[in-house]
Amino acid sequence: MKVLVINCGSSSLKYQLINTDTDEVFAKGLCERIGIDGSQIVYQKEGCQKEKTLTPMPTHKEAIGLVLEYLMNEETGVVKSLDEIDAIGHRIVHGGEKFTESVLITDEVIEAIEECSELAPLHNPANLTGIRVCQMLMPGIPMVAVFDTAFHQTMPEKAYLYGIPYKYYENYSIRRYGFHGTSHKYVSNHMAHFLKTRLKYLKVIVCHLGNGASISAIDHGKCIDTSMGMTPLEGLMMGTRSGDIDPAILEYIQKKDNITIEEVMDILNKESGVYGMSGISSDFRDLTEAEEAGNQAAARTLEAYAYRVAKYIGSYVAAMNGVDAIAFTAGVGENSAVIRSEICKYLGYLGLTIDEVTNHAGSGDRIITTPDSRVRVCVIPTNEELEIARETMRLVKGDKAE
Ligand code: AMP
Q1: Could you tell me which of 223, 247, 351, 381 has the fewest CB atoms within 10 Å of its CB?
Q2: Would strands 325-329 and 376-379 be described as parallel, antiparallel, or unpaired?
Q3: CA-to-CA distance for 359 and 379, rounded, in angstroms?
Q4: Catalytic residue (one of 148, 244, 246, 365)
């Protein structure tokens, strides 16, 4: 089955055309600066160089129209006509409590996603635009919505409720939802497969450490806790997001700097995390380089980062009363042996030892603990697009979830 995966942001759009029978990517790319001067489409056919073209894209309609033109281009395209595209999978950020799994898109589903927009005002409206434009340009092709939040809907009340008046949960739906669910689901399943077992037999912790970062506890196949909250601001320290802080700090900064709550939120979302703490960069490559050059700010930031990840791992070991395997994934988790090593220095009590040779030298799926370790630590590259494509195929075929 050929599935077009669409991830629509407010001014950008990522796409991949995937063969779900072979997991092969026919072509992929992105449209940037939609509705802004200097918009550009990037297109890459499998095995070929990236093509970058500056072209006006006033709205998402022109952007998706261009994607389809590139996919059908006589010379560099990968399909002859739209009829070859069997289904479209859309990444949707927030499914609230309404969506506990992926769904085929209908008018009712669109309405329900709209109702969740209040919880993700920057993301859901953009995701919905993607759906509407695809309906317009490719009528009749079945579409599926895959939610970032759905995988975490198995969390029990004790994990998702905040210690605030219960009426806020009842009246405003304030609770932990969690994000990166597609990645946590893909990585946990893939790790079980890689370890030649089934997820239902394992207690697993997935550390998705990218520019955004979250961690989840998956007990016998079900997510029982995750670090991001009602929004992606909670939890680990991230590239530019603060993660957990004392909520009273918000009012304190607001008063001290005489700024609005919106400005404080902007600081927590865009000027904090490792960027804010180090004053150097949100990119972990820059921080690691600076640390190696003897920069103290970079060193203390990376130390604080690793410490927090290790604390979360510890709390999830307690929540599950044990752990069998820990996965590192996403930009930092997959690529930074130094950070993996720093985090795992705290985990000796679990009976694990990092094999620094495989940690530093390997690539792709791999175990980075020594064979005598009681808990296995793995590096598992994430693939959210493939997970969306697989979910789309499953629903279009009418298959049940595992
Ligand atoms: P993601 O959000 O998953 O795309 O991850 C982006 C983050 O991965 C950025 O902060 C990058 O600095 C980080 N990253 C990518 N490659 C490396 C690397 N080799 N070492 C450390 N961090 C990396």
Answers
A1: 247
A2: parallel
A3: 8
A4: 148
Active site residue 148: yes
- pLDDT at position 156: 98
Q: Is the Cβ atom of 335 under 6 angstroms away from ligand 1?
A: yes
Of 90, 209, 206, 210, nearest to 152 (Cα)? 206
Strand 143-147 vs strand 103-104: parallel, antiparallel, or unpaired? antiparallel
What is this structure's pTM?
0.95
User: Any idea which residue has 């820059």 for tokens?
Assistant: 286
Q: Is 284 in the pocket of ligand 1 (CB under 6 A)?
A: yes
Record the tokens describing residue 7, joined without a space: 């991830």
Q: Are 237 and 308 in contact (CB under 8 A)?
A: yes
State in Å: Cα 334 to ligand 1 middle: 8
> Measuring CA to CA, how many Å separate 130 from each of 9, 245, 260, 266, 278?
9, 34, 33, 26, 37
| C-beta of 273 in contact with ligand 1 (< 6 A) | no
Give the CA diameter of the chain.
Answer: 61
For the chain, count helices (H), then strands (E): 15, 14
pLDDT at 147: 97
Which ligand 1 atom is at minimum distance from the Cα of 286?
A: 12
pLDDT reported for residue 124: 93
Q: Which two tokens stand for residue 250?
A: 């918000």
- 331 in contact with ligand 1, CB cutoff 6 A: yes
Q: What is the pLDDT of residues 381-396, one digit of tens each?
A: 999 999 999 999 999 9
Nearest to 69 by CA among 15, 142, 105: 15
What is the Cα–Cα distance from 57 to 64, expressed in whole angstroms?
Answer: 9
Percentage of the chain surpassing pLDDT 90?
96
Distance 209 CA to ligand 1 centre (A): 8
Token pair of 275, please? Answer: 């960027």
In angstroms, the CA 124 to CA 105 distance is 14
Query: Do the Cβ atoms of 42 and 29 come closer than 8 Å?
Result: yes
Tell me how far the alpha carbon of residue 355 is from its chain's centroid: 27
User: Which residue, 156, 195, 201, is CA-closest to 176?
Assistant: 156
For atom 23 of ligand 1, the residue with the nearest CA is 332
The low-confidence residues of the chain, meaning pLDDT below 50, are: none
Q: How far apart are the first and last CA of the chain?
A: 19
Query: What is the CB-side half-sphere exposure of residue 237 using CA atoms within 13 A?
Result: 23
Q: What is the pLDDT of residue 401?
A: 73
pLDDT of residue 34: 94
Tokens read off for 174: 């304030």
